[in-house]
Predict the 3D structure of the following.
Amino acid sequence: MNKMNALFRQNTLSRDVATSGIGIHSGKRIQLRLLPAAENTGVVFRRTDCGGMEIPALASHVSSVELATTLGRDDVTISTVEHLLAALRICNVDNVIIELDGSEVPILDGSALPFMRLIEATGLRNQAASRRIFVVTAPLSVDLGGKSIRVSPYPGLRVSYSIDFAHAAIGHQQIDVEIDRRSFEGELASARTFAMQQDVAALHQRGLGLGGHQDNCVIFGDDGPANTTLRFADEPVRHKALDAIGDLSLLGAPLWGHVEVERGGHQLHYSMTEALRSRTDCWTWATGQPHATPRPEPRRRQEPAVEQPAMALGLLPA
Ligand SMILES: [Zn+2]
């Protein structure tokens, strides 16, 4: 496929692809099917066991951010969407229907890598419509009790993430990655979800984490991973960065900006999507044509006039 087309035109999958696995919280086996979708459909979940109820993968449909990101509509929910969403975003899949016969995306190996492999197995189909890019044009931060997230203008996507766990086996970890498909695959995609051994019993009592086992998460005991060997010495912070990419994809388009997170999690990532929705002076939509630099879309007349900062749009990679 033409690389420029992949960047500036919308893409869907070339054909259906399916897998199945257990939900990490429900412990139930769930069928997952990805279907090609028309231009401008976006990423849409469909619960086949609930009359085909559809829930768009947009921040406006987030219903919970505890432990995992959950989307909801009426009484129907879909949880643990973030790893699949990160893989779809990085693989440039703009339009897709995600069918599930249960309330959770299968956890597979706890990372985003199996979802990338699934998408690669079917391949992409380029579509005619231009892709919109969510371009940060001014810094914006959210602080939540000693935790913080900040976005600022950047010609592409860069994620700087740090965590501080009192747990000695994790402690302080930080990572700074310029995100593209290659760096995501090499640095973040295979990092697995994790939990503390001391929390597992309480989670089970609440009916959560019932599908967790040695093949799909890292359980940290006092001396380190108790159930598996780490894929990276700093696998937890890499997984958090992966989560952030999935959660921020709920903006509904590729994000261009520098995302800096300290002691983050789903709550903080979601808070930034909310802040960006209300602070339209901090970002703009850009569209791109093959062989051209993305340019800002003209604002609709009814929207308040926002000065276009000279920033980044001139710096964006062609
Ligand atoms: Zn995660």
In short: The two ends are 17 Å apart (CA to CA).
